[in-house]
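Can you please make up a whole protein chain along with its backbone structure tokens because I've never seen that pairing?
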Amino acid sequence: MPGRWTWTDAWIFIAVISALQLAMFVLLTKIYLAMLPEGEYCPMCDNDTSSVERKGWRRLLGARFRQSWCLACGWEGLHRRSDAYMAAHRSHRFWRRQAPASMTNSRSHSGQLPLNSKKSS
């Protein structure tokens, strides 16, 4: 019958509204995290900050973010780590597999010179 709601319509409505709320939460979280100051300097007085142990929900943010505290003015908050820092510390990721030492190009194979030192003709 047209104009009447069924349970299927209700579940579709609930799913769409829930998906919109979840998308809004993810979007606003990304915006908030993008607004955090980058680097290791205090946004209030521009002095160096010290790392503080992350507790509670801040532990879920991962290595990209760090809890900081300024010794000079007492500011405490989150900082984003710079791209240079993340590139220098990528080897600490547990899901990256390291090539065995015997498979690298700088090793000598069967008494020959290393592969990267040979001159091309």
The longest strand covers residues 65-70. The chain has a mean pLDDT of 76. The longest helix spans residues 7-34. The beta strands are 49-52, 65-70, 76-80.
